[in-house]
Amino acid sequence: MPDLFSPFTLKDVTLRNRIVMSPMTMYRSTDGKMSDFHIMLMGSRAAGGFGLVFPEQIAILPEGRTSTGCAGIYDDAQMEGLSRVAAIIKDMGAVPAIQLGHTGRKGSEKKPWHGKTQLAPDDPDGWQLKAPSPISYGGRYTYPVQELTVDEIQDIHRAYARAAQRALDCGFEWLEMHFAHGYLGASFFSPLANQRTDAYGGSVENRLRFHREAFDAVRAVWPERLPLTMRLGSDDFNEAGTQFDDAVWAVGQMKQHGLDLADISLGLNTDAMKDVPFTEIAFMVDRAARVRREVGIPVGVSWNLGIPAVADRVIREQLVDLVFLGRPALANPHWPVWAARELAHNDPFSLIPEDWHWWIRSRPGPDGSLGWPAVAGGRSSG
After folding, report:
1. Distance CA 59, CA 48 (A)
2. Taking residues 81-93, what's their average pLDDT?
3. Which residues pair with 324 in a beta bridge?
4. CATH superfamily of the domain spanning 8-337
5. What sign has the CA pseudo-torsion 237, 133, 160, 65?
6. Exposure b/e, 195-214, CB count within 10 A at least 16 = b
7. Is the Cβ–Cβ distance between 177 and 185 less than 8 Å?
8. % residues pLDDT > 90 (the chain)
9. Confidence band (pLDDT; 50, 70, 90) for 361?
10. Whole-number mean pLDDT of the chain?
């Protein structure tokens, strides 16, 4: 029976455990380039014991960013920083992963701590938003949206393929396509955002066409030996939006196109959501487990899984295969080691690089002297 610390193999890649640092936008890039900040952030989490480490969503086009402070992979000049990030993750014992995406009608924003409001197309830091249909998201996203032409959609697919090739050249070994959270892929799948009457709109089959074609474009350049996965916006929590039954069907369709693992998340195509269990522990696990069971594909999931016992349980019960952690990874760079201590792992510090592990284990001191908090239940701090 697997547990949180069991290795996980997908294609030719083996993770040392089931703990993933989820992609999180940091708004720290200039001209789409990653910097020493990103190397520090991802390197420290890899050194802290995470098995799979993602930087933030990486935009395939300049207009695919959330803001001008977000990272991209649409220019060769961005490859140096990305390569350094991939290298430090691998050197610290984790697998370097990359999430490719396009924000669609949820781009052209101010940074969250500056209000996260949308910028006008003619603002120096803004741009014209494009989406499946000329429908603004609403709320703080107030400016008109242009409908993508078929030629523009095909250009986006070619941009996905170019980005995947760059990601491979930078040393990433796991690629995820971001089709959730109200971004471009999610908006194509949701009838709230997609009201097209051509081959990309209408039926659920047509609304998945964007995903299939983008995925096929990436599959053509991404090696079969490396995992190709997808984060899917599986539910809009709105009667007129994406429904979970359609998402289960969609994962099955994408499996036929070479999908290796499904990362099940939310649609977030509208603020008009009903009964969203945002405060419930592990609230996406049952949905992901259904996908795993009915489609027969490995699944990962995030949302409120930062309690070690909960994260371990959903793996032991074989409900999901990977646990994605966002804010817990920001709050604690050594979350895996902390979790191992809380769960009475026989050697928690074996999760960190060998040289650090040696010093900690070979020079023990009084209980608590290493700077770790006491273990719950009064067990040895090991």
Report:
1. 27
2. 98
3. 20
4. Aldolase class I (3.20.20.70)
5. negative
6. ebeeebbeebebbbbbbbbb
7. yes
8. 89
9. confident
10. 95
- Span 189-234, pLDDT tens digits: 999 999 999 999 999 999 999 999 999 999 999 999 999 999 999 9
Secondary structure class of 10 (helix, strand, coil)? strand
Give me the mean pLDDT over the 30-54 stretch.
Answer: 98
Q: Which residue among the candidates 27, 137, 183, 200 is catalytic per the annotation?
A: 183
> For the chain, how many helices (H) and strands (E)?
12, 13
- Cα–Cα separations (whole angstroms), residue 27 to 6, 33, 68, 328, 361: 33, 11, 8, 18, 38
Q: Which residue matches tokens 């002297």?
A: 369
Assess whether pLDDT exceeds 90 at residue 133.
yes
Nearest-angstrom CA–CA distance, 339 and 79 = 34
> 88: number of CA atoms within 13 Å, CB side?
22
Confirm whether pTM is higher than 0.85: yes
**120: number of CA atoms within 13 Å, CB side?**
3
Domain segments of the chain: what residues? 8-337
List beta partners, residue 131: 147
| Angstrom distance (rounded) from CA 167 to CA 155 | 18
244, with CB counted inside 10 A (0-12, 13-18, 19+), is middle
pLDDT cut 70: percent of the chain above it = 98
User: What DSSP state is assigned to residue 64?
Assistant: G
What token pair was written down for 72? 């991209």
Half-sphere exposure of 334 (CA within 13 A, CB side): 16
Question: Catalytic annotation on 183?
Answer: yes
